[in-house]
Each structure stands twice: as structure tokens, then as C-alpha cells.
Amino acid sequence: MTEDDLNSQPDQTPDTGDKLREHEVRTALRDLLAEVGTVTATEAAARLGYSSGLCSFHLRQLERHGHIEEAPHRGGRARPWRLKQHTPTAGTPAEEQFGDLARGLEDESWQRWLAQRDQAPTEWRQDEAFSAVAYLTPEEMSRVGDAVRRALAPYQDREQRPLARPDGARPVALITRLFPLLPHATDEGGQD
Questions:
Q1: Would you say 54 and 45 are in contact if contact means Cβ atoms under 8 Å apart?
Q2: Which residues contact residue 112 at a Cβ distance below 8 angstroms, ignoring those fewer than 6 apart?
Q3: Rounded to an integer, what distance in angstroms lies between the CA atom of residue 7 and that of residue 9?
Q4: How far apart are CA 123 and CA 20, in angstroms?
Q5: pLDDT in tens, the chain (192 residues)
Q6: How many other CB atoms sit within 10 Å of the CB of residue 132?
């Protein structure tokens, strides 16, 4: 498939190999934006080794799904992009704010990390992944979510302010999913 094919037929369903490449390109673009703040398709192509047309296509797809936005610029043909800040709105369920594409990109990034961890610098080869099951009320679950958000708050401005990053800082995925576990259809009613 050529670059022209990608640009002229964006709505056709690609085969599995093309889908994996799409996730790879979009993940790389999001990682790059997290690292540098803003980037044009041409700059992304130079840094990532893809064509500028391919980067442009996937940047537009990320915009279409609400994950990036055009960054302010002073006219001209250059079109810089940045990660979109997702501000929670009162009354909107967290599930609606997150979106399937974001979860897919997170899962793809995790799989890429597992496959390529040995290529990272030695000091970055560990991760802090964990999971747990806790019996909570809905109110307690909300309090745990709030505590996690408060713990991350001191670091969030670094995404948009590269000068606020200490030497040696790198983008790190911070993913928290709090949800009730539903019984399997074969379970006999009742809760444990």
C-alpha cells in the first residue's frame, strides 16, 4: 500500500498487518507529542522515520478521535499538533471521556514496552505495573480515583511545559482503571 493509497482511501478496512502498523504509527506519534509538546507532520516524519504523508494522515485521525489538536501557530503551511487536554466535565461518566481509541493505544503501548523493554536504557528497564482487587463502595471507589489524581497533579504541567521537566525525565504512561467486577453469566446469583 502506498502513501497515496492511504490518503485516498482512509475509510477502507485495512488487513490485520495494516491495523498493527496504524497502531504503531499512532502510538509513536502520541509518544513523540508527549515528549516534545508540539510537532508538524514533517518533523514527526524526520524523527520517527515514516513519510510525512503517513504522519499527516495519522495525525488527522488522532485529531478526528479527539486525542490531539492543532497547536497555535503564526500562519504558513506548517501545521503543528499537540496532545489535547482532556478536562473532565461534571456529570459525564469517565468511560465516555476516555474512549476506545485511548484504551487501544494504551494497550498497544504496554505490549510494545513488554516486547522492547530490553532495548531501553538500563535504568528504565523496570516498570511499576500492578493490579489489585479491593472491595469498595461506589463512594470509596471515587475517593481512590481522586487520591490517584491528586498524587499525579504535581507532574501534569510537564506535558505542556517542557522546561518544567527535570533532567532525565521521560514520558511514562500512567494508567488507572477503577471499575466494578461483574459476575460471569455462569455464576449463581449473589455476591461474595
A1: yes
A2: 24, 27
A3: 6
A4: 29
A5: 444 444 433 433 344 455 556 678 888 898 888 888 889 999 999 999 999 999 999 999 898 888 888 888 777 778 889 888 655 555 555 455 556 667 777 777 778 888 888 998 888 888 887 788 899 999 999 999 999 989 988 888 887 788 888 999 988 888 888 888 888 776 555 554
A6: 4
